[in-house]
């Protein structure tokens, strides 16, 4: 077991009508003038955004609205939001939406407390020391950004998708009402569950085999997400299983399932280049990449893949052939992805063959022209990245 620090300071209000507490929570954490940040018109049509506006008015809290967040949130909107915040004297950021909206708010929060170009923080030129306080009303369980330090932004200049993950950006509070997820389309629901599971799988595939309690929690998170998704795809208004998915989405990415383990995150980084180039849904991109990553690295710690196959995917343990058990677990994961409408290779994801030039460009960007390696389970250099992209062609 590795030494670790665990930090999860976000206050959670969970359940039916949880959004009623929004304005009081903003007030609790010092908000006097709020930027109300959201995505498209669905937030208005659903009635959630008008409700939050009324709650803020009733509490005597001023606010300014900024919508327009898209999946793979854009740096240009972050900069626009920063301009509005400075002009209006905003002191609190309230994100109403999913991970993209929360990440966009986090990036603004970083930038508003930083003297230089906010993008410098995402490319590692500097480290954020502070962040404007943020709260969220979650509508899409997927990214886990409501309880994590994670923040991912896409720069349209070069279509670079980069992260800036520091504790100062953690939300002060997260409002979670599973009823607000009833209207999610099936594809978005499946993408969300895929993302949730990958957040724990990136931690689970490790060479540290002596953290039994973390393994048990991680496997429970994975099994819960895997089992509950079929109920909500069949009945979108199944509160019980929507609630399990919403809560497990936070647990999967608040650090709990990685305590004491060396983590990997190669699949996420490989996918970031994929969605940066093709602007695909993040969860679907993860599903397209993971099987090829898994087949490329499984021999580094076959015992770990056997454990995953048996304890998570329910594969029979062939004690005489552990390699076959490991491979059967990967195949079972592919079957699960297909069962919930996810792709298992890039061709299924984007609808065409990917070119050698595109593969080389993604690997070049990810490796920073060969200077960087990624992954903890197996260290991957530029040539390895290219190999995995080729395996994932389909």
Notes on the structure:
With 394 residues, this protein is α/β, with parallel strands linked by helices. The chain contains 16 helices and eight strands. A hairpin with a 4-residue loop joins strand 6 and strand 7. Helix 7 runs parallel beside helix 11, helix 8 runs antiparallel to helix 9 and helix 10 packs across helix 11. It is globular and about 70 Å long. The model has no long low-confidence stretch (mean pLDDT 96).
Task: Summarize this entry quickly.
The protein is α/β, with parallel strands linked by helices and 394 residues long. 49% of the residues lie in helices and 10% in strands.
Major sheet description? 6 strands, parallel
Helices and strands, in order, run as EHEHHEHEHHEEEEHHHHHHHHHH
Give the CA-based shape. Answer: globular
Give the strand content.
Answer: 5-15%
Strand order of the largest sheet: 1-8-5-4-2-3
Radius of gyration: 20 Å
Oligomer: single chain
Cα-to-Cα separation, first versus last residue:
38 Å
Which parts are unreliable, with pLDDT below 50 for 5 consecutive residues or more? none
Helix content bin: 40-55%
- Mean of the pLDDT scores? 96
Q: Which secondary-structure class do the elements indicate?
A: alpha/beta
Number of strands: 8
- Number of continuous helical runs: 16
Distinctive features:
394 residues, alpha/beta, six-stranded parallel beta sheet, two-stranded antiparallel sheet, 8 strands, globular
């Amino acid at each position: 077991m590795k030494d670790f620090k665990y930090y999860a300071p976000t206050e959670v209000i969970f359940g039916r009508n949880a959004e009623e507490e929004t304005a009081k929570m903003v007030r609790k954490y010092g908000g006097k003038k709020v930027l109300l940040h959201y995505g498209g018109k669905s937030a208005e049509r659903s009635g959630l955004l008008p409700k939050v506006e009324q709650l803020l008015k009733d509490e005597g809290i001023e606010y300014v609205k900024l919508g327009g967040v898209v999946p793979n949130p854009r740096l240009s909107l972050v900069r626009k939001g920063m301009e509005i915040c400075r002009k209006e004297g905003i002191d609190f950021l309230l994100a109403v939406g999913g991970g993209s909206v929360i990440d966009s708010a986090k990036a603004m929060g970083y930038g508003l407390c930083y003297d230089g170009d906010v993008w410098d923080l995402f490319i590692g030129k500097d480290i954020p020391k502070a962040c404007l306080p943020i709260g969220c009303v979650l509508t899409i369980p997927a990214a886990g950004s409501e309880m994590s330090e994670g923040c991912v932004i896409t720069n349209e200049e070069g279509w670079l998708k980069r992260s800036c993950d520091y504790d100062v950006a953690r939300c002060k509070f997260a409002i979670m009402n599973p009823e607000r997820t009833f209207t999610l389309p099936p594809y978005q629901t499946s993408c969300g569950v895929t993302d949730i599971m990958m957040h724990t799988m990136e931690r689970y595939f490790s060479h540290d085999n002596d953290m039994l309690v973390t393994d048990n929690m991680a496997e429970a998170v994975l099994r819960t997400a895997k089992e509950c998704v079929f109920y909500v795809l069949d009945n979108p208004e199944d509160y019980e299983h929507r609630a399990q998915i919403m809560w497990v989405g936070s647990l999967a990415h608040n650090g709990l399932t990685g305590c004491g383990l060396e983590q990997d995150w190669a699949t996420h980084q490989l996918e970031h280049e994929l969605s940066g180039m093709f602007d695909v849904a993040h969860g679907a991109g993860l599903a397209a990449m993971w099987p090829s990553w898994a087949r490329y690295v499984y021999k580094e710690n076959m015992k770990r893949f056997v454990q995953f196959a048996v304890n998570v995917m329910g594969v029979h343990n062939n004690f005489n052939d552990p390699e076959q058990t490991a491979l059967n677990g990967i195949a079972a994961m592919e079957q699960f992805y297909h069962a919930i409408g996810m792709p298992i290779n890039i061709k299924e994801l984007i609808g065409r063959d990917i070119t050698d030039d595109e593969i080389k460009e993604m690997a070049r960007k990810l490796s920073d022209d060969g200077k960087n390696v990624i992954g903890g389970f197996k260290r991957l250099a530029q040539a390895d990245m290219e190999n995995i992209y080729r395996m994932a062609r389909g």
